[in-house]
What does this fold into?
Amino acid sequence: MRVGTIERKNVGRTWMVWSLTFALVNAMAMRRPRCGRRATLAVVLLLGAAAVLPPARTLSRAATPPSTATPVQATWLSYHSDPSNNALYSPWSAPAATWRSASVQDEMFAASVVGDTVYAAGAGQTHAVYAIDRANGQIRWARIVNNVVMTQPIVVAGRVFIGTGNNYMREDPVTDWNHVSRGSGVNAVYSLNATTGQVIWARPVVGEAMPTPIFVGGILYVVTGDRHLLALSAESGAMLWLLPLPSYVSMSSPVQDGNLLIFGGAYPYAEYAVDITTHRIAWQHIFTPLDGQAVTGAIDDCSGAVAHHVIFCTGTTSAMAHPSGGTPVHQFAWALDTRTGALIWQKDEGAGILPDFFSAGVPTVLGGVVYIPTPANKGLDARGATNGLLHWHLQIDGRSRSAPVVIKDRIYTSDDTGMVYDIRRAGGVLLHRMHLGGGVSNVGVVLSNGVLYVPNALGGVVDALPAHLFSKAKTLDVASPFPPVSLQAGSSPCG
It folds into this structure.
């Protein structure tokens, strides 16, 4: 089954203006392609009151009866919906199901599991949001939006919130890196009806809104590529307040600790804590050169994991001022006090080659141990949370950039070759692996009710894999229940 035909509505003069504008923007593209899309220049995004957005379009779908499951994970409020980044959730009433969703001309970049639905974000050619029946993998609805979606869908009170944007600089060539903005296309924050996918509101933003927003007390907080933190009414999309930031934010999603929202930015490469009660920056930690090499990446991509008032994340250094994919780099992991921004520890994770696009290893922290992917050298580290001392290092087949899921004595993670791994938590022993093909983005897998939900960016599908497929296997390599996915035309790792 392939999702295909697009329904269109006559929206008159407004749509004509937007269509001509968007065509002009694309025609002026000058930047290098990334994420399988042409670059765009936002030369006329904010016309007048900046309130014109393209009408959303619905992809045709087969009618699917609603699931009878009782929702348990009823909301998804932030990146991985937990400050620890451990995407592990409670059982629900339906039995574990094995399925592969319909293949779409899109990159299934991130997934949120709420009740009887898996909400997936599309970062490819179609750039849509998808609602998938958790019982059988059927696509209930798909809503096309105005740019790629790399946020995990936020789901609360019957609504789905996402941000859109791209990862091109708004100035070409860049002449002042300390003031450059990111996100050259048409960028917005959307509120959708969780049942139907209909647009409730859509707010244009100047820079990209690619980091996952966070929902706190009826307010949606969004960090952007034009160096701002926005506080939007979740009900109406109205701007409640905004705060200028010294850095642009690439993919670092805010994590909450008390009144503070903490995230990383670039140029300068720094970690920020914003107090949402005072609307001010509470502290900032600027990362200084290590061993004579400047910090040149990952801080702005890394969504931190928080436990006991400590935030953990990663960075990279390079001899080059602005390294690109294939450049030699060094990786490092770090821990900061969330109350003050003081450095607790910083550890070298070894040399390697800078990946294209997303360069961070997003960690998970649990039980006094922080589990950290090392994408430049294709590994996974386990370190003591209090001192950063290395417990073990595991080499894997591809680049893992996503926060692993940790449950009891097991760790599950994935990589950009489409491999899913089952690892013994004690000692970091690789127990099983399953090759799905395609490739998994930096957002990674979710485990709920004993089922791994794997959004395959390069394959355009979401897979539901019961964990017993791994635990009952007798060999290292476990046969996939599905044929290897084929790469979507024009797709890219996109992180």
